[in-house]
Amino acid sequence: MTLDEIRVKIDAIDTQLLKLLNERADLVHEVGVIKKRDGLEIYAPEREEALLRRLVEKSEGRLPEKSIRAIYREIMSAALALEEDLKIAYLGPKGTWTHQAAIEKFGGSVHYLPQFNLSDVFDQVHRGLADYGVVPIENTTEGAVRHTLDLFAKTPLKICAQLLIPVHVCLMSLEELNDIRKVFGHPGVLAQSRDWLRQHLGDAEQVTVSSTERAATLAKEEEGSAAVGSLLAARINQVPPIARNIENETHTTRFVVVGRRECPPTGNDMTAICVADEINTTSVIETLRALADLEVDVAQMESHPTGKKDRFSFYLEIKGHITEPHLQQTVRTLEGKGQRVTVLGSFPRPAALD
């Protein structure tokens, strides 16, 4: 076939795809009418993940899993926007990796509400001003985000989804690399890219600012300057990335979606719990022994101080859904030993963990 003939075929397929997408939107609208009539949530993370897994399994063509998920993420995002003005609160400002995680989960068609701190994200969701919130809960360099875990203990909100985002840093600027004399960045992001900056921009002044968004704004305004941050921040602020993946080492941040209801089981779930206890060797051993005796499959376990004297808490991610009898027995057993157990929520097992 000639190039023109191929393009004609592509145009015909695009026309067919558009027709099918509109037919799909009509069916989704009918689902939305039924959900509103019955008082059900419009967004169903358990349904979303099951659909994505099934589509990936059915695919027999060139598209990899990542592309299939990205395409259908936007299709589902557009459908949600048609049914309801879905509001997603996240730890801001715009252009943060939490903002990126929110878009990865909900797509570009819903309404995003950047919040000043983690408490504000939880408050927005708890009061119904946002439908869901997206917050970091763990990263590979700093461990559990303690304040996030503390907030779960203070509110009835639940984890209803989880996603893992590799944190890549870019250098953004309107200048050529050799013309850069100053680099703006959040202190943490500058630290993450210290080695690359030393090697390629050793003479450039490094200036710390409050956020990546602020850094990008300054790089756009000040001649001879650049900023370090996320690709999303570069795109939002229209500052071209002139170097990518400049982080000292790639690390992954774990984000969770928080909501007001428990996520129903999918058959491939994880449950997050916090177990608070006294700080002593005996209590640690008893907790581990109880989990082993119950044959609980623990995917992750991390301890951190609670802020109260002589007490700490374990953050645990366990395979299975909290409605399953063996997990309910686990909670009862730990509570029977005098430990305070908080079930943070059950959610579909993230694809990256499979």
Q: If you had to describe this structure to a student in words, what would you say it looks like?
A:
By secondary structure, the protein is an alpha/beta fold. The protein has 12 helices and 15 strands. Among the domains are: 170-249, D-Maltodextrin-Binding Protein, domain 2; 261-353, ACT domain (Alpha-Beta Plaits). The chain has helices spanning 3-38, 45-58, 65-83, 97-106, 118-126, 146-154, 187-192, 194-200, 212-221, 231-236, 281-293, 325-336; strands at 87-91, 111-115, 132-139, 143-144, 158-167, 170-172, 182-185, 205-208, 225-229, 241-243, 251-259, 269-278, 298-305, 311-319, 340-348. The mean pLDDT is 83.
CATH level 1 class label of one domain:
Alpha Beta
Whole-number mean pLDDT: 83
CATH H-level superfamily title of one domain = ACT domain
Count of beta strands: 15
How would you classify the helix and strand content by structural class? alpha/beta
In terms of per-residue confidence, which ranges show pLDDT below 50 for 5 or more consecutive residues?
A: none
Q: What's the total helix number?
A: 12
Strand content: 25-35%
